């Protein structure tokens, strides 16, 4: 096959109208590269805010969107040693982040932002920019691991590893929070989850959340969460996805020496009202920005997924590649639960 269907983000001025589906050549495989037939992709909040002009990290437009993808190797370059034809693979978010802490080179290698991503039928990647997919997952499930899963794994294990018996608080029911809930339960931790709807609360219960707080009716959820911890000492790890709208409450329930992993800002809120950095001193905690994670961390995470037979929480609605713009609108309207996936034929 010489041509393929692919989406392109042309600019960041026209909202989702800046997303265009067209024909493009199938990329050529270099000596260190792997050609992948992409079978599935999944969306992140980041994908939505790139065409809206709200993304704070490096971009190089026009670009093929999507960081998360899974599929099958169809060709390998002459110097490739990590993969062979027929291998099932999943993409690494920051292609240059192989191990160790984040650095400027790694931060400038994000799929679907600086490097062409996964909303297409075929992609060429350097062999270091892929991992073997977990043996227990299908392509739709594997495609959800690249960003959300690795971000939550990094939050729980990248700085101060989660221990059995500790308490984790997850906010909402997006991809990062759902993975954190599953990873925390597999590790023997107690999980407190916040949500805004009784329907989502029921789903959280089924996934194993020990305590659920409705943050709309219980606006002082930080104090409530602290009261649910042993001796009311507070939460060990907080998956902070709300940003200015939620950080104030997170600081109310964090334990001494606990970690608040700041991952997103979906909760909005007025930045002028957000806590100042000196509040980490009065609360004796670490507030840490998490930008996905390294290949080494991803490989550790995949081992845990296989050993514990963890299956990602996937929204019931699956879109096709042609329907990607509809998927963007569906996710922007917050109709999804867990990860939103796209099947690529």
- CATH class category name of the largest domain: Alpha Beta
Largest sheet: 7 strands, mixed
**What is the arithmetic mean of pLDDT?**
94
Shape: globular
Number of helices: 11
Please tally the β strands and state the result. Answer: 15
* Count of individual domains: 2
Order of helices and strands: EEEHEEHEEHHEHEHEHEHEHEHEHE
The CATH homologous superfamily of the largest domain corresponds to Medium-chain alcohol dehydrogenases, catalytic domain
Helix-strand makeup class: alpha/beta
Q: Which architecture of the largest domain would the CATH scheme give at its second level?
A: Alpha-Beta Complex
- CATH topology category name of the largest domain: Quinone Oxidoreductase, Chain A, domain 1
β-strand percent reads 25-35%
Helicity, in percent?
25-40%
Keywords:
alpha/beta; 345 residues; Quinone Oxidoreductase, Chain A, domain 1; globular; seven-stranded mixed β-sheet; 27% strand
Question: Mind sketching the topology for me?
Answer:
Layout: E1 3-9, E2 19-25, E3 33-43, H1 45-49, E4 68-76, E5 88-91, H2 104-107, E6 122-126, E7 130-132, H3 139-142, H4 145-157, E8 167-171, H5 175-186, E9 190-195, H6 198-206, E10 211-214, H7 221-227, E11 235-240, H8 247-253, E12 254-262, H9 279-283, E13 286-289, H10 295-307, E14 314-320, H11 324-332, E15 339-343
Parallel strand pairs: 8-9, 8-11, 9-10, 11-12, 12-13, 14-15
Antiparallel strand pairs: 1-2, 3-4, 3-6, 3-15, 4-5, 5-7
Helix pairs in contact: 4-5, 7-8
């Amino acid at each position: 096959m010489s041509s393929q269907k692919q989406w392109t983000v042309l600019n960041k001025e026209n909202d989702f109208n800046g997303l265009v589906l067209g024909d493009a050549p199938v990329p050529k495989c270099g000596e260190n590269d792997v050609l992948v037939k992409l079978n599935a992709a999944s969306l992140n909040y980041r994908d939505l805010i790139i065409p809206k002009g709200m993304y704070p990290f490096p971009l190089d437009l026009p670009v093929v969107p999507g960081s998360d993808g899974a599929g099958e190797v169809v060709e390998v370059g002459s110097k490739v040693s990590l993969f062979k034809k027929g291998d099932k693979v999943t993409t690494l978010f920051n292609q240059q982040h192989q191990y160790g802490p984040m650095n400027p080179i790694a931060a400038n290698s994000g799929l679907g932002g600086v490097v062409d991503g996964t909303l297409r039928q075929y992609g060429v990647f350097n062999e270091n920019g892929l991992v073997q997919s977990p043996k227990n997952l299908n392509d739709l499930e594997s495609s959800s691991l690249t960003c959300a899963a690795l971000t939550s794994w990094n939050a729980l294990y990248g700085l101060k590893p989660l221990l059995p018996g500790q308490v984790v608080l997850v906010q909402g029911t997006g991809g990062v929070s759902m993975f954190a809930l599953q990873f925390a339960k597999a590790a023997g931790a107690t999980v407190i989850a916040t949500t805004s709807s009784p329907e989502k609360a029921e789903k959280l219960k089924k996934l194993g959340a020990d305590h659920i707080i409705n943050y709309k009716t219980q606006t002082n959820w930080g104090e409530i969460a602290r009261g649910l911890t042993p001796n009311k000492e507070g939460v060990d790890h907080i998956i902070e996805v709300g940003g200015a709208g939620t950080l104030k409450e997170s600081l109310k329930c964090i334990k001494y020496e606990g970690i608040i992993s700041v991952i997103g800002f979906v909760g909005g809120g007025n930045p002028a009202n957000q806590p100042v950095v000196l509040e980490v001193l009065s609360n004796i905690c670490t507030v840490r920005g998490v930008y996905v994670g390294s290949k080494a961390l991803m490989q550790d995470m995949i081992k845990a997924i296989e050993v514990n037979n963890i299956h990602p929480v996937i929204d019931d609605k699956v879109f096709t590649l042609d329907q990607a713009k509809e998927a963007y609108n569906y996710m922007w309207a917050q109709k999804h639960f867990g990860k939103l996936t796209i099947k690529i034929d």
